[in-house]
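In this supplementary section we document a worked example of the pipeline. Step one takes a protein sequence of length 635 as its only input; no multiple sequence alignment statistics are reported here. Step two produces a three-dimensional model, which step three serialises into structure tokens for compact storage. The input and output of this example are shown verbatim.
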Amino acid sequence: MFYRENVPANHNIMRLFFIFLLLILIVPTYSQEKIPVLEREVTMTAASQTLESVLYNMSFQADFIFSYSPEAINHKRIVNLNVKEKSVRYTLNYLFKDEDVEYKVRGKYIILKKKSSPKEDVRVYEGYVYDSQTGKRLTEASVYDKSLLASAITDKYGYFSMEVPANAPIKSLQISKLGYGDTLFVSVDSMVRHRNIEINMQQDDTIKKPLIDFEKIKPGWMVSEKVKINARNITEPVFKTTQFSLIPYLSTNKLLSGVAINDISINATVGYVQGIRKFEAGGIMNFVRGDVRYFQAAGVANMVGGNVKGFQAAGIYNITNNVTGFQAAGIFNDINKISGTQAAGIFNMSRDTATVQLAGIFNKATKNVVQVAGLYNQATWNNSQTAGFLNISDESAFQIAGFANITQTLHGGQIAGFMNTTKSGSDLQIAGAINHTKGDAKVQIAGLLNKAKNIKGFQLAAFNFADTASGTVIGIFSFIRKGYHKVEISADESFPFNLAYRTGTYKFHTFMGTGVSSPNFNNLWNLQYGIGTSFGNPSRTLFDMELSTQEIFYRNNFTGTYHLYKLYLGFDKKLAGKMNIAYGLTYNFLLSDTYQPDYGEINSRIPFYSLTNTDFANGHNLKSWIGGKVALRFF
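The serialised model returned by step three reads:
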């Protein structure tokens, strides 16, 4: 039989109490151990107590051990102290401000001893940076001196330490931090090592922002974190005549590279400065947060957060804001605006305006004067675009492309190997295949097709289409919606039954149709095509001049060996409504192949007489005669 002994309730209560007490004692100790000994905070008030007593209380509160020799310090002297949530370092600096005592940390021990002879060649400035309103220690604050290019950055406990040459003491210290007003401390030359500096940072009404958000476009690993912190914090530039750098970590600008403006900058590999006033050359890359003037060259790339005035060249690419002058890159240029010339092996990218862009593959800009590319150009507005393949623009003055031009509005001309297209109007469109505009066109010339809303000048293509035409339209087939359209039924001496469709303009129109010699369609018949012009008064009488050709077939013989050519002169007189009567004379030439088996049939019927009759050695026969035509035209 097993049984459990009853445990008194008060015994459990006591056990929980001791566990709770142990946690209270352990947790602060554990958290203190995570903080360096000198940065642990103490709150103490001591009035006329011995230094030994104060040190003991301090070590107990911050969980460390002091180690010192009575000969090293006067531990029996009386001190007064009142600190609240201040670091051990801060407190020790205060206690030993008038004594030559130094301290070192070894694990949990702080060793106090007589200060050794100071280095004669350096001087140390150290202290803390606090928020004046909250008392919070500020991290990543920049403490610097412009004249010496000396700087330090506060650590995560707000502490900084800065060494400078002893023969060049600091006359003033400047403190800057993003989000706070800049602070200037003067008369600091009397500061010596272990002298605490308590700096109060006054927060501005408006938070300062970095001059250029440069971190987004450059590789962050190329610039040290301390250099970047100073660049974010410090808004007033440092001016230096010349700087040399091996890498951004090793520069004569030191840790203030990101706020330095130099006249001349020479970078063995990668450079990083605030601005360039005369000249910069870099073996690999140049990073400039602000403006560059007159000359900049890099083996690989230039990246400029501000503007460039003068000449900029890079082996691979340039990235900048605005350029006034000339910019060249082996692969690409990426900018906001250029007033000058851009040249790149592959492409140029301008988000705003560009004067001249030259690229091996493509150019892109919002507005440009001249774009020349091996492949294509793209712009919102351009004055001139020349591309081996394609031009794209919202508004264009002139476009030349090996393949196609595309624009919303054309104020000048388009020349393309294949196609031109615009949504508004065009002055000139020349294409190997197609011109297309939804607006008015002055001149359209294409190998295949033209299309426009209104032709005000000249249109030439195999096929032309338009809404209206006040100019001349020439093509194999032209359809003008509000132009010349006629369905014609006609008779002549050879084919008394003909049907044709006439389209185009009065100045130039085409017609096509067919005809038969009798109602029996299995006899002589033809396919006909012609061009013509009419002048006069369309509402009364027009004078017609036409040239046409007919292919004559006998029954099902489709060899196409009988060609009838006609010159027609006649009149087109309005009868009533949309019906006209046309009549006139024709001069005819019939070229026949006498070797064809049906030649005898055709020769006996066409023509019924001839003015001339000539046989050629190759078996062909040419006859001519004068004939006539009468027709009714509708619409």
